[in-house]
Amino acid sequence: MQTHHGLSARRADRTLGLSRSARHYRPRLRDDGPLIETIESHLKDNPGHGFSLLFDQALHPKGFGKTRSWRVYVALKLNLPRRGKRRLPDRIREPLEVPMHANHTWSADFMADALWSGRRFRTFNVNDDFNRESLRIEIDTSLPSRRVIRALEELVELRGAPRRLRLDNGPEFISAALRQWAQQHGIELIHIQPGKPTQNAYIERFNRTFRTEVLDRYVFTSLNEVRRMAEDWRHRYNHDRPHRSLGGLSPIRYAVASSTPTSTSE
């Protein structure tokens, strides 16, 4: 609804401080469909290109102006930082087999929990697949790849290097430092397929037992308390706890029984 105040348009413009061109301006409605289609088509084949490459290679040759192109580019929210997924090499499914002797294949995995104060901590668990023996439970608030390598290095000094080490695809396990360390010791790293924890079932089963019998059973007030109770439980787990998969024997007793000479020999 228009209201007339008895002023001419020119006097009204002068009173309001407006120019006649601003009052008569009508924005031109442009069809941005072809421009959007060109942008999407180019980025589909070149997802890593930013605006400069996009404009130089696809938009400018087709006559689209830079200001208009940038406006549409921003409207499509393509100017926002895009964090690409970290690409993993193809993982081949490895059959989960019981090794015939100790130190053939180790399995490793992480777990997480919290102290009574709410402070988070992690555990790095390493087992021998042959007799399900728990080789190490490393505990701290942070366990980067350097700490993982140090723990594995200490195990190698005590037991010798395994032929294979089965891992998931966590950042600590796919680091170049761990890969280099494994090559130096002649250890083959076996990475399970992403989202397939059953391919590392031996350590996953151990994790469930450790959580049920230790982490979920007690309230911890310090890291030293966690370490002390975890080490005490690990000793009982290896020496006393029977395993149905081992014929009712503990991991240590199973290893001893398996090393007993039999009537058949190679």
Structural account:
The protein has two domains: about 15-75, no CATH class; about 105-255, Ribonuclease H-like superfamily/Ribonuclease H (Nucleotidyltransferase, domain 5, 2-Layer Sandwich). It is of the alpha/beta class and about 270 residues long. Strand 1 (about 105-115) and strand 2 (about 120-130) form a beta hairpin. It has a five-stranded mixed beta sheet with strand order 3-2-1-4-5, with helices on both faces. It has helices at about 10-15, 20-25, 35-45, 50-60, 65-75, 145-160, 175-185, 200-215, 225-240, 250-260; strands spanning about 105-115, 120-130, 135-140, 165, 190. The protein is built from ten helices and five strands. The chain is elongated, with a radius of gyration of 33 Å. About 40% of the residues lie in helices and about 15% in strands. The termini are far apart.
SSE diagram, text form:
Elements: H1 9-16, H2 20-24, H3 33-45, H4 51-59, H5 66-75, E1 105-114, E2 120-128, E3 133-140, H6 145-159, E4 164-167, H7 176-184, E5 188-191, H8 201-215, H9 223-239, H10 251-259
Parallel strand pairs: 1-4, 4-5
Antiparallel strand pairs: 1-2, 2-3
